[in-house]
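Long-time lurker, first post. I've been practising inverse folding by hand and with some scripts of my own, and I keep getting stuck on stretches where the structure tokens seem ambiguous. Below is the full token string for one chain I'm working on. Before anyone asks, I'm not after the true native sequence, just a reasonable design that respects the backbone. If someone could post their per-position residues I'd love to compare against what I wrote down in my notebook.
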């Protein structure tokens, strides 16, 4: 988050257009904070400072994207990006040239003016609502 804005990512993965928070999955042997730092380095080419834990899934959430049903555990942190102005962003949703696997763009959106239903996954919608409550 920067001021009254939050960073979202629009992605095309597994044949699905999705809007979500930046991040990804743990690799074997990796802790949550290390995963977060690695994902940001991969996605925005910056080392972020992990500030504080914000939310961990506290209910059953099945995965939507895997062929074998599994339980999803999501962990959300507040982070400080050292150079937010250096993140290549768009103001347009899904600002892709092609729908190609792995396409990704970032957008800063106003927290107050963004409808949580614009996010693809139920857990991200819930966390966005919690962010609105906590930071409004």
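-- Answer (accepted) --
I ran through it position by position. Result:
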């Amino acid at each position: 988050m920067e001021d009254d804005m939050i960073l979202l990512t629009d992605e095309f993965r597994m044949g699905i257009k999705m809007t979500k928070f930046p991040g990804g999955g743990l690799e074997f042997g990796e802790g949550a904070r290390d995963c977060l730092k690695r994902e940001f380095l991969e996605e925005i080419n910056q080392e972020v400072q992990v500030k504080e834990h914000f939310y961990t899934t506290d209910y059953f959430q099945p995965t939507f994207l895997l062929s074998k049903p599994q339980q999803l555990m999501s962990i959300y942190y507040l982070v400080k990006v050292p150079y937010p102005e250096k993140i290549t962003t768009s103001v347009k949703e899904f600002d892709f040239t092609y729908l190609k696997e792995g396409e990704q763009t970032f957008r800063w959106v106003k927290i107050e003016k963004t409808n949580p239903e614009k996010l693809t996954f139920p857990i991200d919608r819930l966390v966005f609502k919690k962010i609105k409550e906590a930071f409004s």
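A couple of notes from the structure itself: The radius of gyration is 15 Å. The longest strand covers residues 5-13. Happy to go over any region you disagree with.
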